[in-house]
Amino acid sequence: MSDTYNNSEGANVDIDGDELIGTLTLPLDSWHRARDGRVVEFAGYWMPVQYNGEGGGIIAEHLWTRTSAGFFDVSHMGQLYISGEGVEAALEAVLPIDLSTLPVGGVRYSLLLNETGGILDDLMVTRWGTGFYLVVNGATKWDDIGTLREALPDNVTLNHLDDTALFALQGPMAAEALEPLVTGEQPLSALTFMRGAAFKLGGIDAWISRSGYTGEDGFEISVPGENAAELADLICAQPQVRPIGLGARDSLRLEAGLPLYGHDMNEDVDPVSADLLFGINKRRRSEGGFPGCDVILPLIASGAPTRRVGLLIDGRMAAREGAKVLNGDVEVGTVTSGGFSPSLERPIAMAFVASELAVSGTSLSIDVRGRKLAATVAPMPFVPHRYHRKGAA
């Protein structure tokens, strides 16, 4: 999922569209502040952008996650449970996903689309027994709930699990840190990328999936909100683990080539242009039957006029969202995410450019405050993914 730090989110509204008063807090709010977390407003909540204590700071937190294990509080994201008679068919009418091939505990990326093929949100879907568990972006969750409730039939129930917290533990030592703390019908090591199961974490019920949004091996952990601080203490007491803020979460996902909703995709961007066709399963591409399919299926067949690409930028200056991409003196695209890569020690970006230029090795430039920065189209991810996939050594 793509809900990472950017301080330009919209108004905080509830499910009925009414603006909420003030910025909300999450179960770990005092926990973050006690650890010298610098909190900012994000998606209507106070959340830590970085930790200011010893070993803190965005670059240090980024590199710690790449080499050890970072603990992220992502409780602002929406956790939903959808169930009822005919739920599989009902959900397939709303999402471009093939649920018939999703096993119990299986996790799959998908998209919530509008009738013109634009992306309303990207999300994760997990089969939980007879129902489905969805994790949606925090900034869009109220709109998502409204869209889903309007689209789903009356015999299908949507429950917002707003009394739960959500953590992400990411990095090459995440499994080593978490495994001693959990018990279940199977060992934690049996989970592979995009699979989940119920466990006891410190004796408390938890749903754990081997997934995340950093490109590293790791886990997403759903727990009762009332136990959030206790379980955060338990995890962060492990020597491999440090708390990590939204700043490093953003730089990690950018290195991993993972798009951020509201920036690299939105309701005016189709999945073909955004290079997100893996969110539309093969059967659905041939059968259609989902919102926006009349627009999207022809684009799959003939191609979109623009494409999301990665850019490696010369020098040390970063290009930020909104910067113009040039081919010579001709504007051919726009940067949607950009920053300095701590792992590569150079600036990188994602941008939409004309499809004929979306070829690895193409030389372009970026206009940053009147200065042209040389840039080269590059394959993504910028830093290789290290997911723990089934069958991998």
UniProtKB/TrEMBL annotation:
Taxonomy, superkingdom: Bacteria
Residue runs in coiled coils: none
Domain GCVT N-terminal: 29-282
GO molecular function, one term: methyltransferase activity
Pfam families associated with the record: GCV_T, GCV_T_C
EC main group: transferase
Gene Ontology biological-process annotations: glycine catabolic process; methylation
Domain Aminomethyltransferase C-terminal: 307-383
GO cellular component: glycine cleavage complex
Signal peptide location: none
Binding residue positions for substrate: 220
Reactions catalysed, as given in the entry: N(6)-[(R)-S(8)-aminomethyldihydrolipoyl]-L-lysyl-[protein] + (6S)-5,6,7,8-tetrahydrofolate = N(6)-[(R)-dihydrolipoyl]-L-lysyl-[protein] + (6R)-5,10-methylene-5,6,7,8-tetrahydrofolate + NH4(+)
Keywords: Aminotransferase, Methyltransferase, Transferase
Enzyme Commission number, as recorded: 2.1.2.10
Alphabetical list of Gene3D superfamilies matching this protein: Aminomethyltransferase beta-barrel domains, Aminomethyltransferase fragment, Probable tRNA modification gtpase trme, domain 1
The keyword Secreted appears for this protein: no
UniProt xrefs under NCBIfam families: gcvT, PRK00389.1, PRK13579.1
Similarity comment: Belongs to the GcvT family.
The name this protein goes by in its record: aminomethyltransferase
Organism lineage string: Bacteria, Pseudomonadati, Pseudomonadota, Alphaproteobacteria, Sphingomonadales
